[in-house]
Design a protein that fits this description.
This protein is mainly beta. It has one domain (about 5-60): SH3 type barrels, CATH 2.30.30.140. It is about 0% helix and about 50% strand. The chain contains no helices and five strands. The protein has strands spanning about 5-10, 15-25, 25-30, 45, 50-55. The protein has a five-stranded antiparallel sheet, with no helix packed on it. The protein is globular and about 25 Å long. The protein starts with a strand and ends in a 9-residue tail after the last strand.
């Protein structure tokens, strides 16, 4: 089973890394190489530290 979690991009460090907010105060550095068009404030699906897909705002659970 593979798990991925939604997170909001709150800082873009460079073309490969960003800081994401997973909610409840959990913030982690993630890799954004697979989603190069992600922008500040957008939501992504994160699996093992990699943003694997951009999410539309309506696809994100209400805990954010």
């Amino acid at each position: 089973m593979c798990l991925a979690f939604p997170a909001k991009v709150i800082e873009i460090i460079d073309n490969e890394k960003a800081i994401a907010d997973f909610g409840n105060g959990v913030k982690k550095q993630i890799k954004i190489m697979l989603t190069p068009d992600v922008k500040l404030g957008e939501y992504v699906l994160v699996h093992v530290g990699f943003a694997i897909e951009k999410l539309k705002e309506g696809e994100v659970c209400s805990s954010f």
